[in-house]
Amino acid sequence: MNAASPWWAPHVHADRRPFLAARGRITAAARDFFRARGFTEVESAVLQVSPGNEAHLHAFATELHAPDGTRARLYLHTSPEFACKKLLAAGERRIFDFARVFRNRERGALHHPEFTLLEWYRAEERYEALMQDCAALLAAAAHAAGTRRLAFRDRIATPFAEPEQLTVAQAFARFADVDLLATVSPDATDRHALAGAATKAGIRVAADDTWADVFSRVLVERIEPNLGIGRPTILYEYPVAEAALARRTAHDPRVAERFELYACGVELANGFGELTDAAEQRHRFEAEMSEKERVHGERYPLDEDFLAALAAMPRASGVALGFDRLIMLLTGAPRIEQVIWTPVVERGNPT
Predict the structure, then answer these.
(1) Mutual angle of helices 211-218 and 191-200, in 10-degree steps
(2) Does this model's pTM top 0.90?
(3) Interior/surface letters 68-94, b for 16+ CB within 10 angstroms, e for the rest
């Protein structure tokens, strides 16, 4: 977008309109995709008691004024996850949601404060089924967009190829020469061991970096740029410390049933074999909020209603796909604002 002109200027909108028209076709194709597989579309409420409990996600807060004059703090959700899982507890079995979500402190080519997550869940099905969904959805979306490639900057991938599957440990070994699993146990992480391995690999480590900080830096600097090149990549089996809402794998308690879908070096989707142990979930949320308070000086409340619903929730798997990013990669748009009909405008910034 032209930084000197607002998005609603006719000449700017004319440049964006092909991307937006493609968005409409892809949206329709995605709805057809899920309905053909027996999914029900749901609409989760934006206002929630808790916006989510991940340490480095930042929410927008608001205040509810009741007729009796009392006030309560609410948040715009960062994901429809809590609401969707309550629907699973209520008896829904296959659901999807085109959810408008809100995340503060995020803005860039791939980030926008208000965006769309396409989130879907399968009750009583393993998370490998979601991996298959992701691959099939990419192909269906590409057909709707009229393209045979995904592209971002100088990276290209075909949406029709079977995704490469790579564990996180394999990726750390291949691209950073780091033995990741040597730095984790079922209930702890070894910051010293990971920092030493990262330093040996030539990755900068600060004195106050935590294990999670070092993990993220290796992932961002050495691994993500190599994922989804030529064909999509599914990165799976994250350490439990990096999978707050996922259950542990049956074969290795150090890692969890979490995967991410990448194309052209861009993270498109994040999926889980869902954790349904309320006590373990509470423990993980509290640890996340303690880290948030340590780093950012604030914490969000826990959704006690959600924790209660976990007791009634069946085993399930769920995934959230960044829908705007998918549109970008299918249309070749260089920035996320170009595929959003009415982008958020910051004061003094016409774009």
Answers:
(1) 30
(2) yes
(3) eeeeeebbbbbbbbbbbbbbbbeebbb
- Residues 281 and 275 sit within 8 Å (Cβ to Cβ): yes
Reported residue count of the chain is: 351
What is the Cα–Cα distance from 160 to 135, expressed in whole angstroms? 8
Q: How many CB atoms lie within 10 A of CB 32?
A: 12
pLDDT at residue 346, rounded to an integer: 77
Nearest to 167 by CA among 236, 108, 78: 236
| Helix or strand run (H / E) with residue 237 | strand 233-239
Do 83 and 77 contact (CB within 8 A), yes or no?
yes
Options 3.40.50.2000, 3.20.20.80, 3.40.1280.10, 3.30.930.10; CATH for 10-163+231-339 is: 3.30.930.10
Tokens of 159: 């949406």
**Mean pLDDT value of segment 249-278:** 97
DSSP letter, residue 188: E
Q: What's the CA angle centered on 336, arms 335 and 338, to 5 degrees?
A: 75
Q: What is the tens place of the pLDDT at every residue in 187-240?
A: 999 999 999 999 999 999 999 999 999 999 999 999 999 999 999 999 999 999
Chain-centre distance for alpha carbon 264: 16
Q: Which residues contact 271 (CB under 8 A, 6 or more apart)?
A: 127, 130, 131, 134, 258, 259, 260, 261, 317, 318, 319, 320
